[in-house]
Amino acid sequence: MTEKIRVLIVDDIPETRENVRKLLQFESDLEVIGHAGTGGEAIKLAEEQRPNIILMDINMPDSDGITASQQITKSVPEAQVIIMSVQSEADYLRRAMLAGARDFLMKPFSGDELVEAVRRVHETRPVLQKAVVTQSSAGSAGQIKESVREGNIIVFFSPKGGLGTTTIAVNTAVSMARAGNKTLLVDGSLQFGDVGIMLNLKSRGSVVDLIENVSDLDQDLLSSVIIEHESGLKVLLAPPRPEMAELVSADAMKTLLDTLRQAFDFILIDTSSSLNDISLAMLDTADRIILITRQSLPSIKNVGRFFDLSEGLEYERSKVVLVVNHASKKVSISVKKIEETLKWPATIVIPEDIIAYSAADQGIPLVRPDWQKRPVVRAINRLSDHLVGELGNARKISKAEESNGSPSIARLFNR
Ligand SMILES: Nc1ncnc2c1ncn2[C@@H]1O[C@H](COP(=O)(O)OP(=O)(O)OP(=O)(O)O)[C@@H](O)[C@H]1O
Ligand SMILES: [Mg+2]
Asked: Which residues are placed with Cβ below 5 angstroms of ligand 2, an ion?
């Protein structure tokens, strides 16, 4: 016999909780495993009982339904939240969806509507793929805990300008997109972004338009601002004027990335070489930081300082991937010497190649079928394969969810 769908009911009015329970009681495939009257209680019960479905009211004492949903989607990723709301709470509803809720029911709803929503959301739940290994407190064998997969964020950074950060970010992104990954490239060099030039793309909007509407993103806005390159890569450009970068705050950037990562396998971010609160927010959020150096003392020294910083920020060692660009055997500082000095392996070495200059000037990617055999292109493809291999091909939404109307932001990008 298949397992029952385990439901938790959260509402501050006891009578409502009881009514909802009654509506579910005769369904043989559903089981109400608990009730909560506050957001805080809901979080606690969800963490203890690990329900499949949580029916969540919005307005409650202490932590409200949105805050509770946000917390639960993180700590109990297998639980799917359905918001129960009255019409006047439409604005809350959108926020709840961004907080990870999967569906909503307008109060008052019928038993059929309720049962149908519970089954639909359960059946179309995202495939749980990522096995996160957590050490038990005793430090013995790791337990396997499954969580919902979100897209990975990869930030390209060099503490020194002009070393090829944008070239590597753009071409790794094209390589990933060409390999069939749902990939978004964000120009995070907000003042003097070069991604548009390198890919010969123009957009009517930029990251600033999304930031300004970060709590209210809709399909029209997203599709007018995020553009598609012929490789299939989606691109979010930097603002057209440097002073517009001022309009972006670190918090809003983080919220935007958290929202967008629900819709892509990979989000790659090109950055400028300066460190500020926004680049730090991007680095913090990143699953991997591609740290770029070349065979020169100033750049190696600055990369060393970045490693000190990343230790101070308590980034895991595996988060930072060292890449040497413009590599040449003719330079006296060898790649081996760099590795010894920094005590860090160079995961990928990208050779110097004149075609990089002409590609950038023509606004075409290096990663193109006629250049596949060039060592520079092979190295970039290796970087792309390495990242996909390590991080996994991320978030997959079941076909059922795609067609069945998940309210999540992911739907905005379904092709
Ligand atoms: N491996 C390479 N071989 C040859 N030229 C390269 C290579 N990588 C990058 N370049 C060239 O170096 C120049 C600077 O590259 P890019 O703009 O990518 O650097 P950046 O680090 O992003 O610079 P900025 O600090 O201005 O943002 C470009 O003309 C680019 O084509
Ligand atoms: Mg750049």
From this structure: 165-166, 194
